[in-house]
Amino acid sequence: MIKQSELLPDATLYEYVEDDRAGCTLGPNSFNVREQTAGKRVVIFGLPGAFTPTCSAKHVPGYIEKAGALAAAGIDEVWCVSVNDAFVMGAWGRELRTAGKVRMMGDGSAAFTQALGLEQDLSARGMGLRSQRYAMVVDDGVVKTLHVEAPGKFEVSDAASILATLGPA
């Protein structure tokens, strides 16, 4: 499992882009994790799946609610990462109204999740390989804090817990 003070893996995540942005096409776009975190302070939180109960009712909404406070604490971006494709993450983001607050990043093949060492096998529940529930603060591509939930828990990866750990930018 990735640890504090380690560099994020060289991996690609996918985001469904619905607006005109420099260098992006409408639809799924690939983003290199290291390039996207270079020179930035980013909160990355991972969860088992789009449209699942705790993820939809608590995890993502908490980050939407605290987006302003996170920005005020020096966070440049907030990413939600799930082992889903960019189309699903885009639809979920539209439903939850994440635009401008949380980037919904798809890790469809679980390559990023596995490179972090934060995968879990939920095949017995019909979900296959998924992400553990976690949150991390990344500064210029380096993990500064990492909070991984115990199985079935939602106590340390929420927005309020991450906000409480943030020091000055």
UniProtKB/TrEMBL annotation:
One of its GO terms (cellular component) is cytoplasm. It comes from Paraburkholderia dinghuensis. This is Glutathione-dependent peroxiredoxin. Thiol-specific peroxidase that catalyzes the reduction of hydrogen peroxide and organic hydroperoxides to water and alcohols, respectively. Plays a role in cell protection against oxidative stress by detoxifying peroxides. Belongs to the peroxiredoxin family. Prx5 subfamily. The active site is at 55 (cysteine sulfenic acid (-soh) intermediate). Keywords: Antioxidant, Oxidoreductase, Peroxidase, Redox-active center. It comes from the Bacteria. Residues 2-168 form the Thioredoxin domain. GO terms for biological process: cell redox homeostasis; cellular response to oxidative stress; hydrogen peroxide catabolic process.
